[in-house]
Fold these 2 entries.
Entry 1:
Amino acid sequence: MRGVLRPPRGTHQPPALWQVVCESRFGASPRLAGELWDSYVETYPHTSRTTRFELDRLSTQCPDWAVEQRVRRLAEVVTPQDLLTAAQRLSPEGCPRRRDVRAFEETVLRHVNEAGDWR
């Protein structure tokens, strides 16, 4: 019955900028970036709409000051904990964990300060 209530994994097309950020900033493969988006959408269905909107806004041309503002807004919407939670759903603790997911989590943590916020 799961497929009746929610689409199967892999049906949420990630925003292009999500792919770019996951691959270039966090070292994810294209496949992992897509899986992370699916997990993120399933974990945060309402926030994911805002995230897509903010990513789309960042993809449009605007003055430099607006880019900085939009990046700050995106950092508020997608927290490090959100990404780590989405990754953990792909490879839960207590089971043998996927190497690519662990590497992604480690890279995310390198971009986090002591308070758990983005640097």
Entry 2:
Amino acid sequence: MYVRLLCEALRKKIQSEWAEKFEPRKCGSSLEECRKLRRYSSFIRHLNQDILHTYYVKDYENEKGISPSALGRFLNSEKPCNFFQKYIGNILSVYLGYQSWEHFKQENSRNVNSALNDKLIASPAELPKKTIKKEPVIATTYINSFWRVHHTAS
């Protein structure tokens, strides 16, 4: 849930900064246009440079970087948590203005908890009821290494 929230926050930041950072680099007037113009790989490279610059300026040089292909997979995926690693969370969280991945999760815990609570079922009474037809057993026999159950005719 936190990974999806991180991905959404990154997409919002990209949209809000598009005109300033990516349009001058001839990536199109929007992310959608960028994809149509086949400039998406160029956009990903520029975004990657911007993310790493922000990360290293804040003196986090001891961490790993993020590759443009991993960044592209993260942004394009419907399920970004399938290949998510903590160091990617750290890098992207710092880019979004947080101190670390842990800080991002701490600051967004209310959003995640309320989203989870909305999806939970309030009580067992609200669960769908399944009716299982139970037939009385008359006898069981053991034939050729198998148990055979005999039911009454209904």
